[in-house]
Amino acid sequence: EAQSQNPSTDDVGFIRAMVDELVRSFQANRKRVYIVGTSNGGHISIRMALESPSTIAAFAANSASLAGNSACAEARGQVSALFVNGTEDRLMPYEGGQMTGRRGLVLSTEDSVAYWVDLNQTELTPTVFAYPDLDPSDGSTVERFSYAAGAGSFAAVQLLRVNGGGHASPSQVSSIAVPFLGPQNADIELAEEVWAFFGNQVQP
Known about the structure:
By secondary structure, the chain is α/β, with parallel strands linked by helices. It has four helices and eight strands; from the N terminus they run αβαββββαβββα. The chain has a six-stranded mixed sheet with strand order 1-2-3-8-7-6, sandwiched between helices. A two-stranded antiparallel ribbon has the order 4-5.
């Protein structure tokens, strides 16, 4: 049984209100609002896409997957999706199952990607790209699986699979010396990859 640590606050409502204020006060482009998060932040990014797709053009979830026993509302629309997960993540298992600390069940990364491929009606066969192994000493490599928007759809799906990577965000410029997070990939820079994906996503 998962830990009962969730507050009763309306996180989705808060983010919607924050976006409305940014649009009203700073003339932010409502068609180019994006959300990205790591671990718990990745899960709220997924929740936002499920429950309020009209608010965002795309989300990026790092070290996060769809909940296996979700209390979120059913998906209400298409949102471009990027997942960045390590195959050796001991906290948020790539193959799905119970998260560390009994924080709930998650679907596998592959099933999470398949969910958004189906919802977004993307092409079923991905374009695959293997990133150069710039740092062989990190014990990991990265592959990108890109599912292009299908006919009559605007939403794409992408997976960056960090083979041998742990719960730490991939980065070429920093090393997180936290053993329980597991191996950190140094072949890509997470922020650059996320922005490269977001830059092509616009709400219709």
